[in-house]
Amino acid sequence: MSGIEVAVTKLQFDVAYKFGEPLQEFSETISKACISGLDKLKDVMVYLFFILITIDLIYGVSMLMIDSEQGNSLFKWLLSKTLMYLILLYIISNWAGTVANFMRDFYVGAAATATGSSITDAQNAVANPFDLLQKGASIVAPIVQNIVNPAGIILSGVMFLAMVVLFGLCAIICFQILMAYIEFYMVMIFGFVLFVTSGSKHVRQFAARAFNAMFMVCAKLMFMVFFSMMVQNVMTNLQTDNLIKQHTITVAAGGEKEVFDTLKGMGASDGQIAGIMGNIKQEDGPFNPAEQNELGYTGLFQWDPVDRWPRFVEWCEKQSPPLNPYSNAVQVRYAVTEEYGNLLPEISSDPQQAAADWHRIFERSLEGPGDEGYDNRLKNALGYQMRIHDGILEGATNGMTTRMTVSVMDFALLCKIIVILLAFMFIADRISSSLIKGFANGGFKFGND
Fold it and tell me: Which of 19, 28, 110, 404 is the most exposed place for a label (fewest CB within 10 A)?
């Protein structure tokens, strides 16, 4: 008989699609709005700063004049105050360029040095954190394309879960970097407003908090960039393209005759063979060892994909030499003498009773007398009794073949990727919390004067 081609449905998945583009546009809108707001606030804040230093000067001079001992140091005091005000005025006038951008570039550059990456790549990781998301898309692409798996719905479900977990973890890490990027610009503009309070000693503590916040968000950016670059480097070194491998195999599908010859060679009577074949006909109509239903049950005896089929495949691999699990002869040998021991002594030589015995001992389904499936097994057994007698079984010993494309997932590599993503995400979250607590308690302080 001619070979059978088993077609595998593949889903389309566009890796080039920019999954993070809407969020990227959102973050760019926020950054532009913050920069624009800073420009509009600048003149007002400088004006407010001069008001505060005027108040601070008047108050300070008045206190010095009251205290005769301190009055002699008035010139020295004015000189130090003027120098401090000039420095503060320069920082306020160049807040975006001198403070914010310098601190951001310094910390991002430190992250680039730590990972051995270029500063340009590190800056792109900050401004466009979705490269990692695209990397995640490229990893899950073969999973999506092979999610309609000939191994059945259970393995397809496992692949779907792996896809959701991998892509979800990459998305969470990208979201953390994006939030750190947005947080930087938000702190930049609110920090600018607070830093104006440095003009007066009575409210200068708020200016110190602005500096603390800038240090905190820049340090957070540094660690986020570091983690992003490290994750991408690790992903590249793990060769994630090998997560899903496909193999096209040609498997034997020897038909009824091969099953009969195998059972006969094992010493089974014609009645026992008819009873067993009657069950196989109900389970796997075409006697195809690669037959699979929609739930992934495989082979002549429709072994389940979670327990019995994997155990059978493992048994085949342990034989010397290894046996082909997609063989009628191998499946019959395993079912009759290996999985539950030698079953032939427990099977009647009467075809219908043999079918009932095989169903009770081996198949163990929920069907019973009166159920269509159970009754079909017995009817099939009578039919095979006559066909065996007449010698009209289908399929030669070297009968039809089946070509199958099998997708195999590297679960060890999958676990490594998930563990790495979880570890980086957890560490990033802990460092972020530590930075917030550290700079919230103490941190940078201006002098009391």
Answer: 28
